[in-house]
Design brief:
It is found in: Membrane. This is cytochrome-c oxidase. By secondary structure, this protein is an alpha+beta fold. It has helices spanning about 1-20, 30, 40-75, 90-120, 245-255, 260-265; strands at about 125-135, 135-140, 155, 165-170, 175-180, 185-190, 195, 210, 215-225, 235-240, 275, 285-290. The chain folds into 2 domains: about 1-120, no CATH class; about 125-290, Cupredoxins -  blue copper proteins (Immunoglobulin-like), CATH 2.60.40.420. It has 6 helices and 12 strands. A hairpin with an 8-residue loop joins strand 11 and strand 12 (about 285-290).
Length: about 290
């Protein structure tokens, strides 16, 4: 009994240590457990949910591993005499019925809270960008602009160029996504979020989301839904720039410049830096840069 009590105290101290450490900076790379840091305001809650879930899983794991090791060490065979058999243990059965339910309920609660935060939309976003997906390419349309051809400014990939989606930092950007053929999925890993693009639901409630990027930079985007032969090469790039540069970029596009020229006019690379084209036959496909 004394050994069992000591083991219980050690286990309790170990769990307390995990809980105390979990109160440290959750932005630390160690506590992300391999998860990307995220570059949007919405990604903070997602990252913290991931960290909390992993810590909870580790706590449960340590308890299970501890019980297994304790049983192996203290209940190994000591002779030919049959140990005392226990058919029922009502308190224990109640405990291992209630505790899993509480764990599931807690995870469900925090998941719903984060999901609602990620899916929240403002009444009037600062910018709206339409995203059109098709096998196997992307088109990004800026509906509040007018190009020299009288149509909204848009960017679409080609055999030699990755499509680049330009968006402003520190602004609420609404994406209205649509598919021309099959189910695709709009995914930017650093957003810690992806949205399936459902055909026949253009700009519907389920095909709209908003993000607020808080860090400038270039980030690879991918299709995360198996959509056909060249799904793996259906990449794009998100370029997050300052608000002034974003306005200057749109002005340049409205003035007749293409994506490359407009990006270079605001001091950005004219080509994608996170992924590159990959030719297969006559189609347009891409592969991630090494």
């Amino acid at each position: 009994m004394a050994r069992g009590s000591r083991l219980a105290r050690v286990a309790a101290l170990g769990l307390l240590g995990v809980l105390v450490l979990s109160g440290c900076d959750l932005n630390n790379e160690f506590w992300r457990f391999g998860f990307p840091e995220g570059v949007t305001e919405q990604s903070v809650g997602v990252r913290q949910l991931w960290t909390g879930s992993v810590i909870a899983a580790l706590i449960v794991g340590f308890i299970v591993w501890g019980l297994i090791i304790w049983s192996v060490i203290f209940h190994r065979k000591k002779g030919d005499e049959l140990p005392r058999q226990t058919a029922y243990n009502l308190p224990l059965e109640i405990a291992y019925s209630i505790f899993p339910f509480l764990i599931i309920a807690a995870l469900f609660f925090f998941t719903v809270v984060v999901q609602n935060d990620v899916q929240e939309r403002s009444d009037e976003p600062d910018t709206t960008i339409a995203v059109n997906a098709f096998k196997w390419n992307w088109q990004f349309v800026y509906p509040e602009t007018t190009g020299d051809d009288g149509e909204p400014v848009n960017t679409v990939g080609s055999t030699d160029e990755i499509p680049i989606l330009v968006m402003p930092v520190d602004q609420d950007v609404r994406f209205e996504v649509a598919s021309a053929d099959v189910i695709h999925s709009f995914w930017v890993p650093e957003f810690l979020f992806k949205l399936d693009v459902i055909p026949g639901n253009e700009n519907g409630r389920d095909n709209v989301f908003e993000v607020r990027a808080n860090q400038e930079g270039a980030y690879v985007g991918r299709c995360a839904e198996l959509c056909g032969t060249y799904h793996a090469y259906m990449n794009f790039e998100v370029r997050v720039v300052s608000g002034d540069d974003y306005e200057a970029y749109l002005d340049a596009r409205e003035g007749g410049q293409n994506t490359r020229e407009a990006l270079e006019s605001i001091g950005q690379d004219g080509e994608a830096t996170t992924t590159r084209p990959f030719r297969v036959g006559d189609g347009y496909y891409q592969q991630a840069a090494n």
